[in-house]
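Customer ticket, subject: "Can you confirm the structure for Serine/threonine-protein phosphatase 4 regulatory subunit 2?"

Message body: Hello, I'm evaluating your service for our small team and ran a test protein. I'd like someone to confirm that this is what the system normally returns, since I don't have a reference to compare against.
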Amino acid sequence: MESKHEVAEEETRALLEVVASTGKFWHHWDVLKSSLSYHLKQVLSEYPEANMTPEQQNSSLGETYPELVKRLDEALLSFVEGPPFTLQRFCEILLNAQSIYSNLSKLALALEKFTVSCF
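Agent reply: Thanks for trying us out. I re-ran your input and got the following:
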């Protein structure tokens, strides 16, 4: 029997795939934002930098991994009124992060561009 976590992860991925391919979504923005936040954290945790020591993370990322995750998540959660116009590309990146970006700092820069360009 699948756990609720596995089902939620599959549903989140399916939702992201639809948004990435069509740019459309049917969920309330707060629900979608929560799913994006969850998936963002999952994707970031898959990079080797997540398991480095804080000193190594500072050297590689310019900040610790928890600081990076918090900063990127807060940027996403700051969209209160609705999604950024770059939502479709944001979902594309989250779904294919490892194949597009070889390290966490490059991924972080790409994600920052999409959140900063919307303000």
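A couple of notes from the result: The mean pLDDT is 87. The two ends are 44 Å apart (CA to CA). Feel free to reply with more questions.
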